[in-house]
Structures are given as C-alpha cells and as structure tokens.
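As a warm-up, study this chain.
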Amino acid sequence: MSDRTEDFDFHLPESLIAQEPARPRESARLLDVPEHGAFHDRHVSDLPSLLRQGDLLVANDTAVIRAQLHALRGEARIGITLDRILPDTSWHVLVRNARRLRVGDTLTFTGSPHTADVLAREEGGGAILRFSAQGAAFDAFLKDVGALALPPYIHRPNGPTTQDDTDYATIFAEHKGAVAAPTAGLHFTPSLLQAVDATGAERCTLTLHVGAGTFLPVRENDISKHHMHAERGIITQQTADRINAVRRAGGRIIAVGTTSLRLLESAADENGHVHAFDQETSIFIRPGYKFRAVDLLMTNFHLPRSTLFMLVSAFAGTERMRAAYNHAVTSGYRFYSYGDACLLRCANPIDAHRRTHQNTVPLSGEAGASS
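Now compare it with the structure written out below.
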C-alpha cells in the first residue's frame, strides 16, 4: 500500500481519450474484471447477462447544470466554475484570475442583468458568491449565460456543442446541481434498463451533486495530504431501507459509478448498514480502505494519478487494476467521461463472508473474448 502519487501513474496514449461517446450508448465496451483470473472483453449491452435476481443497481440521479460562467469585474474577465450551493443559497465556486477578486466586489455578466457579490475568498482559487438570481430565475440565468463545464481533456475549441447537451446527460438525471456528469450512467438507455429489469435485478437511485473539485489534480506527492472538496449527497430513508433489505437477503449492491459508491460508503456504518443521508461528504477512498456497502462497481476508465484511480485500486486491488488498465490500453479501450467502462468486484470488504456474493455464476457462451 503506497501513499505516493507517482505509484498511481500509468502511460495513456492521448489517442485513447474519447472525444465523443459510443453510439448507441450501450455499444461502449465493458471490461469485465473478476476478482481473479482472466479479464473478459464485453460491451455494456452485455451487462444484464452478468446480473442475477436479487441484485440492486444503484445509480446517481444528479443532473448537470451549466456551471461554467464568464464574469466581469470592471473590465477584467473572471472565469468561474460553480462548485456547490451552500445552505444559505450562496455558491462555493472555483475562480480563474482569483487574485483580481476582493471581498465586496460585484461581478457582472454580459447579456444578463444579474450580478454576483463576492462574500469570501479562499486560498487555492475558491470563493463564495451570492447571485442576485435565485430559484427559477437562477436556472434561467444559467441557461442564458452558462455553459457545460466539460472536462479539459474533451477538446471543444469553440465551447461545448448542442450535441454535448444531450451526450453529457444520463438517463437517470432528475435533480439539478452537478458540475460534472456521473459518467458511468451515460451508458444506460431505455432498452438497456428494460433488459436489466428482465433479469430480476432491481434498481434505485441516490443523489450526489458532483462538484468542480472532480477536475482538480492531486498536487501532493503524499496522497494522505490531499484535500477532497465537499459534495452534497442525499439518500432517502426509503432508499436506505431498500439497500439494507437487499443486503440482508443476500443480494449484491452494484454501484453505477464512483459517485454512487462514494455516497453509499459515506452513509454506511462500520457494520455495513446504510443510513439515510442529507449532508456534504468529502470521503477520500484509497488503498487500505475496507468497503462497507458495495459489492460490484461499474465505472469508466480514469486519469493517471487521480483520486478515482486510487479509489478503484482500493476497491479491486492495486495490482489487479494495474493489470486491468494495461489490458485496456493495449486493447484500445476508450478512456474518461465519454469512454468505455469496466465492471469490478470488491476485493476489500469489511468482512470476508461477503465474498460469497461477489462473483456471478459462470455463463456458457459468455460474450466477448478473454485475455
């Protein structure tokens, strides 16, 4: 177990960074990573064949907002990325050219009568803003002057396109508040969900509003010193009860994406019991962590040296993930938000008996080639 950021690095050719999603969405590739043995090259459309009656898929139903804004302080241009709304309805934001801001400044926006007052500044480019628009007026303001905050590795020289408005939204999206999409959910379509339901597996959703911190690199050489930005999460009592009932019945909890997993782990106690949750979480999952609530994880392929690659290394085992990512690179899998996905089994649960729930029954004539 390493605390060195460099130990979570790997070579990734730029040509493997997806600039557009697969079409149709479920035609994306799926690397099936059992806890031991050969990897299986599949497609997302094969996911239902890996499920069984009594499983529970847990997806994130956050909806992406137009979080990228360009403000003016006098004649100075200020780049703003919304991060999260605070209890008093002010916003925590990340600011480019933050040194130009002063507490008490009023920012304006071209083409809009609305303004934002600077309430506080933080080290590292953070700030607290209060916008003059609230509620539905704020939604209309973002529609008028905001843009999608696409990850920097998706190259859009002229800004996000109208196609991105559709591509960067999941079928589960219901509650507005995310800066970035929970990208594992991008692979799902109505026909895929219908096929999932036909297996006897069940589905539910939770809400984690993905913040701007997801785009920030790990700057510390010692990952134990890395600070995770807080994100707002909600699990209702009804959803928590359903998750616990599935676990008691011997079913597997399958997190659709790292955001779903992080919220489930934030809400679970030391015995693996998931509680209702309505607060911020800044959980940082890295090797050595024992998982309390999740048996399988479906997730896209993540950046080198990122907290998310550290998370999947904690979940499936560092050496296992090194081997899986090496296979993905040599096999031409597409990486990041618009890329392909993998299905991982938990190698580090809080108690050993959960291992009996983690592997699917082998199927004859499994789709895809093994390696």
